[in-house]
Amino acid sequence: MTLPSTLPVPHGGFRYLPGGFQYSAAVVAEPGFVIERAVFDTALPLEEGFARIEAHLSALGRPMAALCACELRSPAPLTEADFVAFNRRYVQPLERWGIYLDGANPVARCNLVPADRPPETVVFHAFSYTRPAVLAQQRPDFVTSGAAECPDRPGYREAIVRLGETSPDALRDKLQFALGDLESRFAPLGVGWADVKELNLYSVHDLHRPLLQGLSSRAGAGCTVTCHAVRPPVVDLEIELDARRHGSVLLLPRTAG
Protein backbone atom coordinates (compact mmCIF):
# COMPACT_ATOMS: atom_id res chain seq x y z
CA MET A 1 0.00 0.00 0.00
CA THR A 2 1.33 3.43 -0.96
CA LEU A 3 1.03 5.91 1.89
CA PRO A 4 -0.07 9.47 1.07
CA SER A 5 2.37 12.32 1.43
CA THR A 6 1.82 15.34 3.66
CA LEU A 7 0.36 18.48 2.14
CA PRO A 8 1.13 22.09 3.07
CA VAL A 9 -1.43 24.41 4.66
CA PRO A 10 -0.95 27.91 3.22
CA HIS A 11 -0.13 30.35 6.05
CA GLY A 12 -0.77 27.57 8.59
CA GLY A 13 2.78 26.72 9.61
CA PHE A 14 2.13 22.98 9.32
CA ARG A 15 1.62 20.11 6.90
CA TYR A 16 -1.07 17.45 7.14
CA LEU A 17 -1.48 13.81 6.27
CA PRO A 18 -4.80 13.46 4.39
CA GLY A 19 -7.63 11.58 6.06
CA GLY A 20 -11.38 11.93 5.70
CA PHE A 21 -13.48 15.06 5.27
CA GLN A 22 -13.96 15.26 9.04
CA TYR A 23 -10.27 15.36 10.02
CA SER A 24 -6.76 14.68 8.77
CA ALA A 25 -4.77 11.65 9.89
CA ALA A 26 -2.02 13.79 11.44
CA VAL A 27 -0.27 17.16 11.34
CA VAL A 28 3.38 18.17 11.64
CA ALA A 29 4.88 21.62 12.19
CA GLU A 30 6.78 23.22 9.34
CA PRO A 31 10.41 24.24 9.98
CA GLY A 32 10.45 27.42 12.02
CA PHE A 33 7.18 26.65 13.79
CA VAL A 34 6.09 24.84 16.95
CA ILE A 35 2.73 23.43 18.00
CA GLU A 36 1.16 24.83 21.16
CA ARG A 37 -1.77 23.14 22.95
CA ALA A 38 -4.50 25.04 24.79
CA VAL A 39 -6.80 23.21 27.25
CA PHE A 40 -10.06 24.86 28.29
CA ASP A 41 -10.40 25.16 32.05
CA THR A 42 -14.14 24.64 31.47
CA ALA A 43 -15.27 22.53 28.53
CA LEU A 44 -17.21 24.62 26.01
CA PRO A 45 -20.11 23.64 23.74
CA LEU A 46 -18.99 23.18 20.15
CA GLU A 47 -20.05 26.57 18.73
CA GLU A 48 -18.77 28.48 21.77
CA GLY A 49 -15.49 26.60 21.58
CA PHE A 50 -14.97 27.58 17.96
CA ALA A 51 -15.67 31.20 18.87
CA ARG A 52 -13.15 31.04 21.73
CA ILE A 53 -10.54 29.54 19.41
CA GLU A 54 -11.08 32.37 16.93
CA ALA A 55 -10.66 34.96 19.68
CA HIS A 56 -7.52 33.30 21.02
CA LEU A 57 -5.77 33.04 17.67
CA SER A 58 -6.77 36.60 16.80
CA ALA A 59 -5.27 37.85 20.07
CA LEU A 60 -2.02 36.07 19.23
CA GLY A 61 -1.94 37.54 15.75
CA ARG A 62 -2.14 34.07 14.23
CA PRO A 63 -4.33 33.28 11.22
CA MET A 64 -7.18 30.79 11.56
CA ALA A 65 -5.16 28.52 9.28
CA ALA A 66 -2.82 27.96 12.25
CA LEU A 67 -5.47 25.77 13.94
CA CYS A 68 -4.10 22.26 13.49
CA ALA A 69 -5.89 19.94 15.96
CA CYS A 70 -9.11 19.77 17.98
CA GLU A 71 -10.03 17.64 20.99
CA LEU A 72 -13.72 17.00 21.65
CA ARG A 73 -15.75 15.15 24.28
CA SER A 74 -19.14 13.67 23.39
CA PRO A 75 -22.21 12.37 25.28
CA ALA A 76 -22.30 8.86 23.77
CA PRO A 77 -20.92 6.78 20.89
CA LEU A 78 -22.77 7.35 17.60
CA THR A 79 -23.75 5.10 14.76
CA GLU A 80 -21.70 5.61 11.62
CA ALA A 81 -24.56 7.51 9.94
CA ASP A 82 -25.03 9.80 12.95
CA PHE A 83 -21.27 10.32 13.16
CA VAL A 84 -21.17 11.49 9.53
CA ALA A 85 -24.08 13.86 10.20
CA PHE A 86 -22.28 15.31 13.23
CA ASN A 87 -19.09 15.76 11.22
CA ARG A 88 -20.95 17.69 8.53
CA ARG A 89 -21.92 20.18 11.23
CA TYR A 90 -18.45 20.16 12.79
CA VAL A 91 -16.65 21.22 9.60
CA GLN A 92 -18.91 24.22 8.94
CA PRO A 93 -16.85 26.73 11.00
CA LEU A 94 -13.67 25.36 9.40
CA GLU A 95 -15.21 25.89 5.97
CA ARG A 96 -16.25 29.43 6.94
CA TRP A 97 -12.65 30.17 7.94
CA GLY A 98 -11.33 28.80 4.65
CA ILE A 99 -9.61 25.85 6.35
CA TYR A 100 -11.89 23.07 5.09
CA LEU A 101 -11.82 23.20 1.27
CA ASP A 102 -13.19 20.86 -1.41
CA GLY A 103 -13.82 18.03 1.04
CA ALA A 104 -10.28 18.15 2.48
CA ASN A 105 -9.78 18.89 6.17
CA PRO A 106 -6.20 19.54 7.38
CA VAL A 107 -7.15 19.71 11.10
CA ALA A 108 -6.42 16.58 13.16
CA ARG A 109 -8.95 15.52 15.80
CA CYS A 110 -9.63 13.31 18.77
CA ASN A 111 -13.28 12.90 19.87
CA LEU A 112 -14.00 10.77 22.94
CA VAL A 113 -16.83 9.77 25.29
CA PRO A 114 -15.94 9.93 29.02
CA ALA A 115 -16.91 6.79 30.93
CA ASP A 116 -17.99 8.89 33.92
CA ARG A 117 -20.04 12.09 33.76
CA PRO A 118 -20.09 12.53 29.97
CA PRO A 119 -21.22 15.95 28.75
CA GLU A 120 -24.81 16.58 27.71
CA THR A 121 -23.66 17.85 24.32
CA VAL A 122 -20.45 17.76 22.29
CA VAL A 123 -17.87 20.04 23.91
CA PHE A 124 -14.38 21.32 23.22
CA HIS A 125 -11.74 19.98 25.59
CA ALA A 126 -8.63 21.43 23.92
CA PHE A 127 -7.09 22.53 20.63
CA SER A 128 -3.65 23.00 19.11
CA TYR A 129 -2.18 25.59 16.79
CA THR A 130 1.16 26.67 15.38
CA ARG A 131 3.34 29.56 16.43
CA PRO A 132 6.72 30.75 15.15
CA ALA A 133 9.53 28.98 17.00
CA VAL A 134 11.70 31.05 19.31
CA LEU A 135 14.53 28.50 19.20
CA ALA A 136 15.55 26.11 16.45
CA GLN A 137 13.79 22.74 16.78
CA GLN A 138 15.81 19.55 16.42
CA ARG A 139 12.65 17.46 16.09
CA PRO A 140 9.34 18.62 14.66
CA ASP A 141 6.19 18.95 16.72
CA PHE A 142 3.28 16.80 15.54
CA VAL A 143 -0.19 15.58 16.52
CA THR A 144 -2.03 12.53 15.21
CA SER A 145 -5.75 11.92 15.08
CA GLY A 146 -7.07 8.91 16.93
CA ALA A 147 -6.28 5.45 15.51
CA ALA A 148 -8.77 2.68 16.28
CA GLU A 149 -9.06 -1.05 15.56
CA CYS A 150 -10.31 -0.65 12.00
CA PRO A 151 -9.40 1.27 8.84
CA ASP A 152 -10.63 4.87 8.93
CA ARG A 153 -12.97 4.73 5.93
CA PRO A 154 -16.70 4.68 5.17
CA GLY A 155 -18.36 1.35 5.89
CA TYR A 156 -15.73 0.57 8.49
CA ARG A 157 -17.88 -1.67 10.70
CA GLU A 158 -17.27 -4.96 8.91
CA ALA A 159 -13.52 -4.30 9.07
CA ILE A 160 -13.38 -3.88 12.86
CA VAL A 161 -10.87 -6.29 14.36
CA ARG A 162 -12.62 -8.94 16.48
CA LEU A 163 -15.96 -7.15 16.18
CA GLY A 164 -18.05 -7.43 19.37
CA GLU A 165 -15.30 -9.18 21.35
CA THR A 166 -13.67 -7.77 24.47
CA SER A 167 -11.69 -10.74 25.81
CA PRO A 168 -8.02 -10.11 26.70
CA ASP A 169 -6.99 -11.89 23.51
CA ALA A 170 -9.36 -9.79 21.37
CA LEU A 171 -8.27 -6.56 23.03
CA ARG A 172 -4.65 -7.44 22.30
CA ASP A 173 -5.45 -7.91 18.60
CA LYS A 174 -7.40 -4.65 18.53
CA LEU A 175 -4.55 -2.78 20.18
CA GLN A 176 -1.99 -4.22 17.78
CA PHE A 177 -4.04 -3.07 14.79
CA ALA A 178 -4.47 0.42 16.24
CA LEU A 179 -0.74 0.61 16.94
CA GLY A 180 0.06 -0.40 13.39
CA ASP A 181 -2.30 2.23 12.02
CA LEU A 182 -0.79 4.88 14.27
CA GLU A 183 2.77 3.89 13.39
CA SER A 184 2.02 4.00 9.66
CA ARG A 185 1.50 7.76 9.97
CA PHE A 186 4.96 8.46 11.36
CA ALA A 187 7.08 8.01 8.22
CA PRO A 188 5.07 10.49 6.09
CA LEU A 189 5.43 13.00 8.94
CA GLY A 190 9.18 12.46 9.08
CA VAL A 191 9.06 11.24 12.70
CA GLY A 192 9.47 7.96 14.58
CA TRP A 193 8.77 6.44 17.97
CA ALA A 194 11.78 8.27 19.42
CA ASP A 195 10.02 11.56 18.64
CA VAL A 196 6.80 10.71 20.52
CA LYS A 197 6.50 12.62 23.79
CA GLU A 198 2.89 11.70 24.64
CA LEU A 199 1.12 8.46 23.79
CA ASN A 200 -2.54 8.31 24.83
CA LEU A 201 -4.58 5.12 25.13
CA TYR A 202 -8.36 5.53 25.21
CA SER A 203 -10.52 2.62 26.38
CA VAL A 204 -12.92 1.62 29.15
CA HIS A 205 -11.42 -1.89 29.19
CA ASP A 206 -8.65 -3.24 31.37
CA LEU A 207 -5.89 -3.85 28.85
CA HIS A 208 -3.69 -5.66 31.38
CA ARG A 209 -0.17 -4.87 32.47
CA PRO A 210 1.73 -6.81 29.75
CA LEU A 211 -0.04 -4.84 27.02
CA LEU A 212 0.62 -1.53 28.75
CA GLN A 213 4.26 -2.46 29.25
CA GLY A 214 4.43 -3.19 25.54
CA LEU A 215 3.16 0.29 24.80
CA SER A 216 5.77 1.86 27.06
CA SER A 217 8.60 -0.10 25.49
CA ARG A 218 7.42 0.79 21.97
CA ALA A 219 7.31 4.50 22.80
CA GLY A 220 10.75 4.53 24.36
CA ALA A 221 12.46 6.73 26.94
CA GLY A 222 11.10 10.18 27.58
CA CYS A 223 7.57 9.38 26.42
CA THR A 224 4.57 9.63 28.75
CA VAL A 225 1.98 6.88 28.25
CA THR A 226 -1.43 7.86 29.65
CA CYS A 227 -4.54 5.67 29.88
CA HIS A 228 -7.92 7.41 29.74
CA ALA A 229 -11.24 5.84 30.80
CA VAL A 230 -13.15 6.95 27.72
CA ARG A 231 -14.85 5.37 24.72
CA PRO A 232 -14.21 6.03 21.02
CA PRO A 233 -16.94 8.19 19.46
CA VAL A 234 -18.48 5.48 17.26
CA VAL A 235 -20.35 2.35 18.39
CA ASP A 236 -18.54 -1.02 18.23
CA LEU A 237 -15.08 0.54 18.64
CA GLU A 238 -13.27 -0.31 21.88
CA ILE A 239 -9.79 1.22 21.60
CA GLU A 240 -8.24 4.42 20.32
CA LEU A 241 -4.68 5.75 20.37
CA ASP A 242 -3.02 9.00 19.50
CA ALA A 243 0.50 10.38 19.73
CA ARG A 244 1.96 13.84 19.85
CA ARG A 245 4.95 16.04 20.42
CA HIS A 246 4.36 19.71 21.14
CA GLY A 247 5.68 22.64 23.08
CA SER A 248 3.90 24.47 25.85
CA VAL A 249 0.41 23.75 27.18
CA LEU A 250 -1.89 26.61 28.17
CA LEU A 251 -4.89 26.52 30.49
CA LEU A 252 -7.42 28.73 28.74
CA PRO A 253 -10.26 30.52 30.57
CA ARG A 254 -13.73 30.44 29.12
CA THR A 255 -13.65 34.09 28.06
CA ALA A 256 -10.85 36.09 26.53
CA GLY A 257 -9.30 38.85 28.55
Quick synopsis:
This protein is of the alpha+beta class and 257 residues long. The strands form 2 sheets. Strands 1, 2, 3, 8, 9, 10, 11 and 13 form an 8-stranded mixed β-sheet that branches.
Walkthrough of the structure:
It is a single chain. By secondary structure, this protein is of the alpha+beta class. Helices cover 25% and strands 29% of the residues. The chain is built from five helices and 14 strands. Strands 1, 2, 3, 8, 9, 10, 11 and 13 form an eight-stranded mixed β-sheet that branches. A six-stranded mixed β-sheet has the order 12-6-5-7-4-14, with helices on one face. The model has no long low-confidence stretch (mean pLDDT 93).
Structural class: alpha+beta
Low-confidence residue ranges: none
| Mean pLDDT across every amino acid position | 93
Q: Quote the distance from N terminus to C terminus.
A: 49 Å
What are the SSEs and their pairings?
Blueprint: E1 7-8, E2 14-17, E3 26-29, E4 33-45, H1 46-60, E5 67-73, H2 80-96, E6 108-114, E7 123-132, E8 142-144, E9 147-148, H3 168-184, H4 186-189, E10 198-202, H5 209-219, E11 224-228, E12 230-231, E13 240-245, E14 249-252
Parallel strand pairs: 4-14, 5-6, 10-11
Antiparallel strand pairs: 1-2, 2-3, 3-8, 4-7, 5-7, 6-12, 8-13, 9-13, 10-13
Task: Provide the descriptors you would attach to this structure in a database record.
single chain, 257 residues, alpha+beta, 6-stranded mixed β-sheet, globular
